């Protein structure tokens, strides 16, 4: 469900397929400027209708300008339009305005040092900083009417600025966390070159999300409710509009942690939401029997969710005379991004993993999707939760995936496997709270590995399974770093798991960041 308020965004970000494009949106919003990602085709169509943004960003991408024959004059002929070109976007600028772009013989990938030069004064930035490069082609001769703004440590042109127009080109990626002062550099363009005024806030996000719900009118809505911050915020803001027309269903698929059901029962007690718990543990476990491939498990869990909701729709129609028109989901931007790229015309971007709550519903259900958070990041949803005056502990609850423990048990799922992950996860949960470390990490979980190792229990040889601890820090789930937890804390958790969880003889700690790893193991 693409935002219908596109033309009201201050910044349009044209997506050329960079893996970092979404982070440009994120950073611009953090700086207080509304933004939206669009395709080149959409950009052309909007310009043909005489619609313009206050600033345009050309993202990076995997292509080479040597194979690009597109006519960008419809963009560059707008002399008053502020334009930021990042990586591939800068090379487009260089080629169009008469500079020389050369095929790279010295590629720059990873950290690189840059030096600011020329007339541009980037606030809060020292003269030399480390940034993230990812390119081979580069501009070897300045385009007409441009001056050098930044150069890289090996002497290549890393930043250019137009002498009279509001155009900035950057050969590196300021939007990624790896680039020092990246937000300062972006803010320099938005504030000093484009001369934008901030317009993005929690109240504005709430206003837009609420408007999406109001747009459906007086309809009955079924909510896929998990109790996590995403579905909770989506349900509460929708409840304020829909009232009794919103029905929340929590699916107990047997892959929950001990803390989850207790949380749902608390929400039933404290909130005005109509929440019904659906016990379908046996159905899910029977469907998952014999499956060990991660994608097969994810898809089976997603399909079974749909079956459960479909049955609930028929039940309400046949027995209560209530017809649902929409399915409300707490889908977020990273869910959409990791499943597919809706912004590339050829759809060639790689699927990292399937998400059970992305991609639509069977036509036979005759339900439309309502996803008011679809273009928001996790931290933005938390801000919405605070705007709605929700309990702090609910808003900052760790993320929990829809497939539940099904993707934290590697290989086939058995009742004993579920028990081991449930018990170990509960120990981790308890110790995080006991040590005051719950909010020191963004997400914490345990994973059951499909291997056995030799150990000693009660002076006897044991040959049992391995639990892996996974704790990461992130702001949106797009990237993450492993959490450096205190040694005493890790020792306590390991000791309790190996002593209290039957069938586990070893505990390891995952210190992989994202990328290259994902947060979940499957």
Main attributes of the structure:
522 residues, 20 strands, nine-stranded mixed beta sheet, 15 helices, five-stranded parallel beta sheet, alpha/beta, disordered N terminus
Describe this structure in words.
This protein is of the alpha/beta class and 522 residues long. It is built from 15 helices and 20 strands. The chain has helices at 21-30, 40-48, 73-76, 88-96, 182-193, 202-214, 229-242, 258-270, 281-288, 294-320, 333-339, 378-387, 392-395, 415-434, 487-500; strands at residues 11-14, 35-38, 55-58, 83-86, 100-102, 108-116, 128-135, 138-141, 146-152, 157-162, 167-170, 221-224, 246-252, 275-279, 326-328, 368-370, 443-457, 460-473, 481-482, 504-509. The strands form four sheets. The chain has a nine-stranded mixed β-sheet, with helices on both faces. Strands 14-13-12-15-16 form a five-stranded parallel β-sheet, with helices on both faces. Strands 17, 18, 19 and 20 form a four-stranded mixed β-sheet that branches. Helix 6 packs across helix 7 and helix 9 (281-288) packs antiparallel against helix 10 (294-320). The longest helix is centred in the middle third of the chain and has 27 residues, at 294-320. It is globular and about 75 Å long. It starts with 10 loop residues before the first strand and ends in a 13-residue tail after the last strand. Mean pLDDT is 89; it is low at 1-5 and 340-356.
């Amino acid at each position: 469900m693409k935002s219908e308020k596109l033309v009201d965004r201050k910044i349009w970000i044209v997506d050329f397929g960079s893996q970092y494009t979404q982070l440009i949106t994120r950073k611009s919003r953090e700086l207080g400027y509304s933004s939206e990602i669009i395709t080149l085709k959409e950009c052309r169509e909007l310009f043909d209708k005489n619609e313009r943004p206050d600033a345009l960003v050309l993202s990076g991408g995997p292509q080479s300008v040597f194979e690009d024959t597109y006519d960008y004059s419809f963009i560059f002929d707008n002399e008053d339009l502020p334009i930021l070109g990042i990586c591939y976007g800068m090379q487009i600028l260089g080629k169009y305005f008469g500079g020389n772009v050369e095929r790279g013989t010295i590629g720059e990938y990873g950290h690189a040092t840059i030096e600011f030069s020329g007339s541009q004064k980037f606030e809060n930035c020292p003269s030399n900083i480390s940034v993230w490069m990812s390119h081979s082609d580069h501009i070897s001769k300045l385009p007409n009417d441009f001056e050098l703004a930044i150069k890289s440590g090996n002497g290549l042109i890393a930043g250019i600025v137009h002498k009279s127009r509001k155009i900035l080109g950057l050969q590196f990626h300021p939007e990624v966390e790896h680039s020092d002062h990246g937000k300062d550099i972006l803010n320099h363009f938005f504030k000093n070159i484009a001369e934008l005024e901030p317009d993005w806030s929690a109240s504005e996000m709430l206003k837009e999300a609420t408007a999406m719900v109001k747009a459906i009118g007086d309809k009955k809505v079924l909510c896929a409710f998990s109790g996590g911050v995403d579905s909770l915020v989506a349900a509460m803001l929708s409840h304020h509009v829909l009232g009794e027309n919103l029905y929340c269903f929590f699916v107990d698929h047997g892959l929950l942690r001990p803390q989850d059901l207790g949380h749902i029962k608390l929400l039933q007690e404290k909130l005005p939401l109509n929440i019904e718990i659906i016990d379908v543990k046996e159905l899910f476990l029977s469907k998952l029997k014999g499956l060990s491939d991660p994608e097969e498990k994810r898809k089976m869990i997603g399909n079974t969710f749909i079956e459960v909701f479909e049955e609930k729709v028929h039940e309400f129609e046949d027995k209560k005379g209530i017809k649902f028109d929409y399915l409300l989901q707490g889908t977020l931007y990273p869910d959409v991004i990791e499943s597919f790229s809706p912004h590339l015309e050829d759809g060639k971007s790689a699927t990292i993993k399937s998400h059970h709550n992305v991609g639509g519903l069977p036509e036979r259900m005759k339900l439309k999707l309502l996803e008011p958070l679809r273009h928001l990041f996790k931290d933005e949803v938390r801000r919405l939760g605070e705007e709605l005056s929700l309990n702090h502990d609910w808003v900052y609850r760790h993320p929990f995936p829809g497939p539940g423990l099904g993707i934290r048990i590697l290989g086939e799922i058995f009742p004993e496997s579920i028990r081991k992950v449930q018990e170990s996860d509960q120990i981790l949960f308890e110790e995080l709270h006991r040590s005051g470390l719950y909010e020191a990490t963004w997400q914490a979980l345990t994973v059951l590995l499909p291997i056995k190792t030799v150990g000693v229990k009660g002076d006897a040889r044991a040959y049992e399974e391995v639990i892996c601890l996974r704790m990461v820090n992130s702001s949106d789930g797009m990237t993450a770093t492993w959490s450096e937890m205190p040694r005493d804390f890790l020792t306590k958790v390991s000791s309790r798991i190996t002593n209290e969880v039957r069938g586990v003889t070893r505990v390891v700690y995952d210190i992989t960041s994202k990328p290259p790893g994902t947060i979940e193991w499957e």
